[in-house]
Amino acid sequence: MDDLVRFLIARINDDNHAYAYVAGTLGGEALLDSHLPMLDLIEQLANDYKAMDPSDSRSVGLGYALRVLSQSYAEHSAYQQEWRP
User: Which Pfam families match (predicted)?
Assistant: First the structure.
């Protein structure tokens, strides 16, 4: 699961860099309808999972949610099929 969390955070960072490029090229208004707030929330979930004790009853549900969210990156070459929920 640690590999999945690292993968997900790396993809979010890639997306954030892409949005920063768009903002720098086209101006900040180009990001008004972006997914940046959602990316921030997903990154927070991933960080919460990393900090969570495995015995915490929420860890199973949060792990499942991260596997579902990672499917949006399933076409990435580093995505592993075993991460599918």
Answer: DUF6221 (PF19730)
Q: Which of these, 34, 9, 37, lies nearest to 21 by C-alpha position?
A: 34
How far apart CA 76 and CA 31 sit, in angstroms, is 23
E strand spans, 1-85: none
For residue 47, what are the contacts with CB-CB under 8 A and spacing of at least 6? 9
Confidence of residue 60 (pLDDT cuts 50, 70, 90): very high
Residues in Cβ contact with 78 at an 8 Å cutoff, skipping those fewer than 6 apart: 7, 10
* pLDDT confidence of residue 26: 86
**Greatest CA separation for the chain:** 47
